[in-house]
Amino acid sequence: MVFDFKLVIYCFLCNCLSGIYADIGGVNGDVSQIWKELNELKTVLLETRLDLSNTKKEFEDSKEILDQELANTKQTLKDTRQDLAETKRELNEIKKVTYRSKAQFDEIHKGNDQKRFLDTANELHELQIDMQNMHQLQVDVQNLEAKMAAVQSQVKISKTPRIGFTAVLSRDVFNLGDDQIIRFGTVYTNEGSDYNSLTGIFTCEIPGLYAFYVHTLAEPGKHLETEITKNLQHMAYTYARDKEAYSSGSNMAVMTLQKGDTVLVRSNGSQHAHNGSVIDSGYTSFSGFLIAP
């Protein structure tokens, strides 16, 4: 490459000298001008030679640097190949270990599935037993509730006071007056002793819900009206009337009583016969009982 460059310079100088010789001939031997140009050319040649020397040195320095970088690159590639080979061996080992681990995992998973299946079957069996026991327990609870209800009913009945009476007339009633209390002197039942046969009045001792019933039989041809009263307040009427035969009347009253309230049967004002035998004793009665306290 240096030889080619020198050849170019030589050709250039030859052309310059040819031009100079031509100029010498043309300018009538102006030698001093020619020597001046030759000196300038010599200076240019020296500078060019210096530049070539510097270029050569730079080229040689660059070559050394490139050679060193090339050597380093080759070493790096060699090291990289070795690293890749080592990495490949490690990957192969990891792959083998992974395959072995997967096989072991599959075996363990298979065993776990079998164990899990058995555990699930046992749990289902235990659940069935628990459901059967629960059903039996529900039946037992229902039976127990029924027994408790029966016992509570018996206890309630046993705790409920026994209040009730039935009484009839001891004799026929003659010459019945207005608003006259009818006294039922013959007592068949008097639980609690709240009915007074002497006065014909029921006096409440235990507050609660009560029922009272009266039945009357009027003598033939007689008109008879009675009423059941609570504290002398009307609650129910009876009516009996026939021109020739016996006639009867009956009614029932349910009422709430407080302690001290009174219940009785009396003639309804003046709506009745007044003279002679008016009420037959054998078929006239008054009853009452406690429904619930």
Keywords:
5-stranded antiparallel beta sheet, 2 helices, alpha+beta, rod-shaped, 12 strands
What report would you give on this structure?
With 293 residues, this protein is α+β, with helices and mostly antiparallel strands. Helix content is 53%, strand content 27%. The chain has two helices and twelve strands, in the order ααββββββββββββ. It has helices at residues 2-26, 31-159, and strands spanning 164-168, 173-174, 186-191, 195-196, 201-203, 208-218, 223-230, 233-241, 247-257, 262-272, 277-279, 285-292. Strands 3-1-12-6-9 form a five-stranded antiparallel β-sheet, with no helix packed on it. Strands 4-5-10-7-8 form a five-stranded antiparallel β-sheet, with no helix packed on it. It has a two-stranded antiparallel sheet with strand order 2-11. Strand 4 and strand 5 form a beta hairpin. Helix 1 (2-26) packs antiparallel against helix 2 (31-159). The longest helix has 129 residues, at 31-159. The radius of gyration is 72 Å and the shape is rod-shaped. The mean pLDDT is 84.
Structural class: alpha+beta
Write down how many β-strands occur, each being a DSSP E stretch of 2 or more residues.
12
Task: Work out the helicity level.
Answer: 40-55%
Which stretches are poorly predicted, pLDDT < 50 over at least 5 residues? none
Strand content: 25-35%
Tally of alpha and pi helices:
2
The gross shape turns out to be rod-shaped
Oligomeric organization of the protein chains = single chain
